[in-house]
Amino acid sequence: KNEVEQSPQNLTAQEGEFITINCSYSVGISALHWLQQHPGGGIVSLFMLSSGKKKHGRLIATINIQEKHSSLHITASHPRDSAVYICAVSVIYFGNEKLTFGTGTRLTIIP
Amino acid sequence: EAEVAQSPRYKITEKSQAVAFWCDPISGHATLYWYRQILGQGPELLVQFQDESVVDDSQLPKDRFSAERLKGVDSTLKIQPAELGDSAMYLCASSLRATSGVQYFGPGTRLTVT
User: What residues contact A66, with CB distance under 8 A and at least 6 apart?
Assistant: First the structure.
């Protein structure tokens, strides 16, 4: 079983819909990251959070440490939001931080 | 805005050949990471540098892969000989320090081994 599980693997929605992507993890973490990867490969960090909720524009990320679960929400989705969204967790061991990544959720927004 | 630079962006090579990738992290970033991402999967750490020292290379296939960061700035990842299973995206990332949280990723090098 992977340490980081994402759902769904693929998501197709109409422009304007409210999007939710889920991430569950099985280890103790220092932080959780949401990342965006566009076709062509480049990865951009969207959020790093260790508790509660963060908002940036139309994106909202929440985390429940007790339940080891996080969600990424996109309001008023737009075709330019089409990308792969990756959840990753930070674990610190021996003074070193390591990221473990989920397999990603491929989001397609249809105009 | 400062970015992580990688070259080449794309590389096609025949199996058994040698291939090398280059990464220039954001200036001042002490920690540099090389990841491999197979299509449909998340990135997997190959090697992590703190300045010029390797701090984690536990997942690096050392019989064919090598990495160096001689002056603690830019880095090179080499594969020799390349195998068909090495076809993947190779991503470089950097961060201010090993526990600073946010990593900044380069555009990646897509390797195809034929």
Answer: none
